[in-house]
Request: fold
Amino acid sequence: MAGQVKSKQRVADHGEVFTNPREVNAMLDMVKQETERIDSRFLEPACGNGNFLAEVLRRKLAVVAGMYRTSPYEYMRNAFVATASLYGVDLLPDNVEECRERLYDIVENEAKSAIKKHIEQRFLNAVRFVLEKNILCGDALTLKDANGNPIRFAEWSIVTGDKVKRRDYLLSELLEGSDSQQSLFGDPFSDRNDAVEWEFDEEIQAFVPSAVEEYPLVNYWEVQRHG
Reply:
């Protein structure tokens, strides 16, 4: 159990036990193709300090480096996409902060290794902002954040060139499904399916909930303009 617990008290209070790297990799290898797809989205509902998300990010960035190492511009753009595809929730604020910093450090170190002096601060600033929005303190069982509000996540989509479209969705609605498209995590008898309108997304050929908020198109390195 060495390295898998921070304290016996945290285990008793929160059932906190971290998954060791061998088990993390074994489980991720079961969906290896998805872990190596740059824009494939992952949600870890009890992310701790990021064991699963960190490994997914490393795998994605390895693909980015293999494809774009000789083009710093494309490397940073795709590294942003890879980072923005990861989401996490944890009950404990210190875990959330550790997870954010851990993922940020991975991005920074991998970028320095891949494109060296060409790394730009505006890219790193955008990565830090996205991690603040994607890694949240809350309870994935109640679907509420640390302030008691519904958990909402931002979807970051590259629309054209470097332009990013941000749409915010309630996690509860993403998990519930709709009358036309049931989520694997939804209750087929839940009356919450009518809580939000669902729309058919032509790009992914599936029903998705309406966004609770949409933001203007911006360059990916300017996402923090609309906090």
User: Anything to note?
Assistant: The longest strand covers residues 152-160.
